Amino acid sequence: MGAAAYWLLEAAAHELLLFAAVGLLIGGIDDLIVDAIWIGRGMKRWSARHPRGDLANLARPAAPGRIAVLIGAWDEAAVIGAMLRHALATFDHDDYRIYVGAYPNDPATIAAVEEVAREDMRVRLVVGARDGPTTKADCLNQIWHALLADEIASGRAYKAVVLHDAEDVVHSGELRVFDTLIERFDLVQLPVLPLVDRHSRWISGHYCDEFAEAHGKQLVVREAIGAGVPSAGVGCALSRAALQRIADAGGGDPFDADSLTEDYEIGLKLGDFGMRGIFVRLPAAAGRSLVAVRAYFPATLRTAVRQKTRWMTGIALSGWERLGWTGGIAESWMRLRDRRAVLAAIVLAAAYGALALEVTAMAWRYAVDRPVFVPLAAPLALLLQVNLILMLWRIAMRFAMVRSAYGWGEAWRSVPRMIVGNIVAMMAARRAVFHYAGIRAQRPVAWDKTVHVFPATVPAE
Q1: Beta strands of 35-81 (E only): which ranges?
Q2: How far apart are CA 290 and CA 36, in angstroms?
Q3: CB 402 within 8 A of CB 208
Q4: Mind listing the pLDDT tens digit for each residue in 45-71?
Q5: Which segments of 189-261 does DSSP mark as H helices, in order?
Q6: How do 160-164 and 123-127 pair as beta strands?
Q7: Is residue 364 part of a domain?
Q8: What is the domain-level CATH number for residue 154?
Q9: Mean pLDDT over each residue of the chain, to the nearest integer
Q10: How far apart are CA 101 and CA 103, in angstroms?
């Protein structure tokens, strides 16, 4: 009986290891291609001595226009007042208005927004007709219709619509960037740089690592190969004409109220309509930090899993069904990368499972006084060696991107934090599958948001 159980243990470990090794190889090669494109693009720009622009040298808009900033808010009384006051004191632009959407059954958020609106008329509160929470997309649609009514009443149209969240730390120069570049593009996306939470170095910190790569390399490559630029939902401007076109195609609403990731979807829809988006990494001045959006991200395992569940459900599962595979090879490749998150989590789970079984088998051998090394088959051993090289390369790239964005300290922490990110991803993937099954069963889609924090002291730009 013992021998049979041991044989089953070894067989299970071998099969899991083989599955994980093949999956990791495919994902590793996929990531390596992205890295090669990014490095090649950088070398080409360097060899051409292409000068890097900055905010100080940004051209003025040909026709300066009015900008609307849209913020959907559900249960945001703790942060919305501070966020609005900071934005009003920070934005370097002469003509903008901030629209905040709230719900009639959220009096605390309404009161917080009204207090700021009494101080500054550039803040406009929009209370929807339905109790919350619905979806963020539904809330943004309510704001959109209020914006249309204001345009009619004032006789002035907005030039661009900017999306932000209630916890965002905005940059002083972002509206200037949007005012200029929206004349050439229909979507302008700035980088998102999570703030370092010194009380949550490992959970919140892993967002710093992932965004350093996503907004330092992956979106750059996405734009370079001609794929659609997805909106991050914050620090993003859309041209007024583009939103109107999407609204006309969607029965009057630009955002799909049944979507959990309306920001991601609207960026790709622009590409489907033949409109252009751009991802902009622009320093405030030579040697200064980027014009970017900053915010604290979830600081506990539970809240991080909840947030990534929403992302996986909306992008990796619902996105497949809702957006399909329109576009050319580059677009299909990028959408496939977006939608591999759940499968990647399964591969990771298999890898960790294989490791656990191998350790158990080794302990078993020592327990029965048979410390015999069992060699792997040559093809599997070679596969694992290749994966080891790819993993070391992956760690080096993550280290370099985080060092560039956050410095040496966070770069060193990013290495063990990769394990934290894997744990969060695996837990979120399991939850996302059940969440998606509920959506397919016609359960109502609601705003599954996390508690937000606005910094007591805003970091210098």
Answers
A1: 67-72
A2: 24
A3: yes
A4: 887 766 678 888 888 999 999 999 999
A5: 205-213, 219-224, 240-249
A6: unpaired
A7: no
A8: 3.90.550.10
A9: 91
A10: 7
| Cβ neighbourhood burial of 96 (10 Å; 0-12, 13-18, 19+) | buried
Total number of domains constituting the chain: 1
Does residue 161 belong to any structural domain of this protein? yes
CA–CA distance from 289 to each of 150, 201, 230, 232 (Å)?
36, 22, 23, 20
pLDDT for 328 beyond 60: yes
- Token pair of 409 as six digits: 């300290």
Tell me if residue 239 falls in helix, strand or coil.
Answer: strand
Token pair for residue 49? 């001595």
The residue to which tokens 């350790």 are assigned: 359
Domain with 233, as residue range(s), is 55-298
The length of the chain in residues reads 461
Range name among 69-78, 242-251, 435-444 with the lowest pLDDT average:
435-444
pLDDT in tens, 387-414: 999 999 999 999 999 999 999 999 999 9
Closest CA to 311 of 298, 299, 292, 300: 298
Cα distances (Å, whole numbers) of residue 63 to 109, 159, 242: 36, 9, 17
Question: What is the end-to-end Cα distance of the chain in Å, rounded?
Answer: 67
For range 245-272, the mean pLDDT: 88
- The residue type of 61 is P
CB 115 within 8 A of CB 81: yes
CA angle 368, 374, 376 (to 5 degrees): 155
Residue 13 belongs to a domain: no
Residue type, 319: G
Examine residue 42 and state whether it is found in any structural domain, yes or no. no
**Per-residue CA distances from 451 to 101, 216, 313 (Å):** 17, 27, 20
- For residue 382, report the phi and psi dihedrals to the nearest 5 degrees: -65, -40
